[in-house]
Write a structure and sequence with these properties.
Strand content: 35-45%
Helix content: 10-25%
Order of helices and strands: EHEEEEHEEE
Shape: elongated
Structural class: alpha/beta
Oligomer: single chain
Radius of gyration: 17 Å
Largest sheet: 4 strands, mixed
Length: about 140
């Protein structure tokens, strides 16, 4: 079965962000792998600076049935992390109460760009940029 799982890059906030997302979505705690846990590389290979050893190399958080949010801290050697307006993560909830809970959780410390409201297409819908700069759309069909 084909699946698509969003992968987010952060500048030193991946662990904080994934613990925040866990508080919003629930389920099992996120899993983290750190750059310092990777096997040593041979001489002459690219070596991760010691200053980045505790940063998150890979994080994963199971959300709902078979969906996974993944991410990492972007190493300084790869340049700065930039956020654009070309992508949102769309969350479909089972009902309006869950949509409200998820939306309000993501909005905590963030910026609501479109308040959660009943829409003409028969859904409750809203958009928010969370406190980490990630853009979300929350939708619940009526």
């Amino acid at each position: 079965m084909l699946s698509i799982n969003p992968y987010l890059n952060f500048t030193d906030q991946c662990e904080e962000a994934f613990n925040f997302y866990h508080s919003v979505f629930g389920g099992d705690a996120p899993e983290f792998s750190r750059f310092g846990e990777a096997p040593s590389q041979g001489e002459g290979d690219h070596q991760m600076p010691e200053s980045e050893a505790n940063k998150i190399m890979h994080a994963s958080l199971a959300i709902g049935d078979g969906h996974t949010l993944m991410g990492s801290d972007r190493p300084e050697s790869m340049g700065p992390t930039t956020f654009g307006n070309n992508a949102h993560i769309s969350v479909q909830t089972k009902d309006k109460d869950e949509a409200t809970r998820v939306f309000n959780g993501l909005a905590e410390g963030g910026n609501v760009t479109m308040p959660l409201a009943d829409m003409f297409w028969g859904a409750t819908f809203g958009m928010v940029v969370d406190k980490f700069g990630v853009q979300w759309m929350v939708n619940s069909e009526h």
